[in-house]
């Protein structure tokens, strides 16, 4: 259905979208009926002069709506060219490589160099998409994967294996000739029309001019990376509605790495950009004029999680580098063991929760449930990131006897990744882009956040091999088994063999699309339980472990969030009084629990306590504002949320929270300004901000209310998504289990 037709037959949705400000983020149907009248009464009640809304501007003074860009010469890609550039020129890397030998060699081993049809993982997905949606629609992929094909219109027809443009990927000129970029995604950058060329090495002036031309201001921005590391589907790609896909920008903007410390009190963490993580300085082993005085260059390997792509290329060096890059980015801990009675065994002693799990008095004939906690330690976006539904990082727990014998292992390990559903609620595991309709669940971990995974096992009554060692591991594979299978099949096809033959001829690399996936151990933790197990004596370390477990438990269903409070309480009893930062973090965790439980005054008091421990940190203010917003006390929420937003100027979610409170308190002009700050910061397609903008413009009588309303309707989550998730849950016990944020996997006794 076209966008105009859908809007024509769903006018009722506009009523929903323009309901009370109080419901702007919650959704009209999601608000408690008993609260609605009270919230409306507050919004319309008289207020003190200090809290009075700003004067309503006249029609000519209302700012214009900020709207997403939805057109361009290569739509549905958002890529633009300031003039005309030939794909062959964009694909050419030899001109650069003749001087920059080190950088060229690094790039040749990178995922950027194998981003196009020469990558069998990508080719399997895009060719299926092109068959289903038509060649022209695959421009959606081209801005990021195939710019050399895109600018020539070559994606509109069949792509031949002998076409050099189909082997070029993301080249030197793609980045170094970008004169503008945004966080919008789908290749939202603009290439300069003037072709970047090499200098006359004998002319200092020519060399100086080349350095300036090769380093446009856009090159140093996160927007350039973000223009491709965010993607979305829409009616233009054959979907019936907007669907956010890859998004590494949003989590980064809402994290301490982008300067937003509102989410939690944390360790002192330095700000990081895309390039500071993925392009660290590396010693040049070849002559390169880009090397500094001590021989260092910015790495152009763009290391990430592409272990399998390196293995497909037979590149053992890059595989090892990627594995080294990944190790330690997450941590794992066996943070708690809950002992329960089982059968007729000795079940009367040691029952209940033991946190930390070390030396839990487990005995034969009992059942034990482990809380394994995984924390994203140093990834500036979700882990795993990128195409989350294709990721296959696993969390497992094994039990070993004192003799070293394996006693129990998971029947199915937990997968850190997401599930995307089709229109029947069936998970799509092989990047079937054309069939994606909604997120079924997402177990990836936000920056510096944590997740709890439970494992349970029944200990036989004849168990004698004590103590027992519980070993938790996080194992990384870069792609799902389903995607590996379709990629292997593509590699064995006629076209697959043709592309592999050309790659071998032109680069000397032998592509094996059926190569085994490397498995990388990212983190490991061990604890002993039962008779003879050593007891932990490091109370400060245990306090931190309990705090991190509490962060993970904050993701439990609402009815169980009190468990997080218990973990924070134990942590507080252990923390060293000389560590005010950790103490403030734990107290902030308690404030988060109180806020989620609707205990606004308790949350505010705890937030004030945390603020006193760590003056100036914005997280306590954020927690206080969120707690008041949760119970519709908008006027009290405004000041702390404003403080948090001012401390996190690039964080769209901080602006959205403040705009909601301002609008719900009747301050439409301030709400509009705040929502638009959020839209400008990098979230032009954020549904909540678009809705808040539309509501404010409606209240203020803006000239383009209709355009703003259309934009937010176009980005509204699909009404059918709950039905698709319910269908998945009904059809699959695994889906039903995975839809619970903190759920239990069975260990099988060997």
Automatic annotation (TrEMBL):
Keyword Signal appears in the UniProt entry? yes
Q: What is the lineage of its organism?
A: Bacteria, Pseudomonadati, Myxococcota, Polyangia, Nannocystales
Tell me the keywords, alphabetical order: Signal
Residues of the signal peptide: none
> Mind telling me what this protein is named?
Multiheme c-type cytochrome
Which residue range or ranges hold the Cytochrome c-552/4 domain?
95-176
Please tell me whether the keyword Signal is annotated for this protein. Answer: yes
